[in-house]
Amino acid sequence: MCQAYIYINGIYYYFVSLQKYLKKRVIIFAVMKNTKTGLKKHIYLLMLSHLSVDINQGALPAALPFLIAIKGMNYTSATGLVFASNITSSIVQPLSGYLGDRSARFWVSSLGILLAGSGFAMIGLLDNYWAIFVAIMLSGVGNAIFHPEGGRLTNQISDTNKGANMSIFAVGGSLAFAVGPLVLSASVTGFGIRGTSVFFIPALIMAAASLALVKNMHKETEGKTLPEMNDKATAATPELQVNGSADKDDWPAFAKLSVFVFFRSTILAGLSTFIPLYWVGVLMQTQAAGSIALSVLSFASVFSTLAGGFLADRIGYKKVMIISAVTIVPLLAVFTFIPNLLLSFILLIPMGFALQLCFSPVISTGQGFVPRHIGFATGVTMGMGISVGGITAPILGRISDLYGLPTTFHVLIVLACIAAITTFFIPGRKAGTQ
Fold it and tell me: What is the pLDDT at residue 221?
């Protein structure tokens, strides 16, 4: 107990010291004199914070083959850890967004970063399955409380080009899912399963940076009420207004979008979880090769996350969602029914691109449907857009245990078809906008 106290006290001391150092020394995020320059720096700080949070969630699927090999888990128990991460996120994120809409708590993003990294870092240090389960839940809580605040702030400081700015923020998450498996594979290969503790380092640094610079980050919104900021942010981009109005919430439209979010999230979580396992169990490759495959999928999504926002600003948000959802169906079918190593590897690139093309348009569209509840909309479209699918992971894991991994991918094809169909029922953002 005494050693644990000394360890926690030491972490607190270094966190405070780092926070004070960054507050004095980091010039790039210092007091902003130019509005445009300030906006960019705010956006990029939020993007880096997003990366430091999602790198843990991105690394979790890559950790599953190692946990199965080292700790003797089966598919059901291993995917249960994905459930642990996502069930907390799915519950906490909308609640966190709702509370953020009522009263801004700018420190919660720093807390989210620290919890996300700390929880994941502990899984390699624990031997009991349920202790690992709880640690992953803790990481999920951190993930959940960060996303609504980060997305809400991005929306509010974006006077124009809302889709493009949301893409910059969102690309931090996409990059995290690409980098996470590589960092996990390298750390576990180098230090054993206890190498997961490496993930505490970026969490500590970015949490301290965010806390040190919180006043500058929120300078754009200082002195305004949340409803006023929501009105300004939404009114600035006509494409995101509901029927030409910046102050009406369209909950039926948001509900239709949420259905698409659920199916898309299930597909994304299914592929992220089972591609490393597919590489090992079907294509007979190593765990490290499975991590690389997942990173290739995620790196492709980095570019599509950026492209999606810029494209949506030009051709329309609904069109980008339709293109994204429809394209993934044939790609996933070829990937599933032709289990060839080279072909599968090549297909990861267009699959990753198609999966994430609609990510930032979905977030911006959701915020436009309910402009009076931007934090809540972000919690559903961004946070749950990634996490809610993880709730179905144990079901897919059970299917894999009973019928084999290929059957799981057959199920994902059916879900992809349903997701594509739902996009045609989502309303356009504005008269004449598709």
Answer: 53
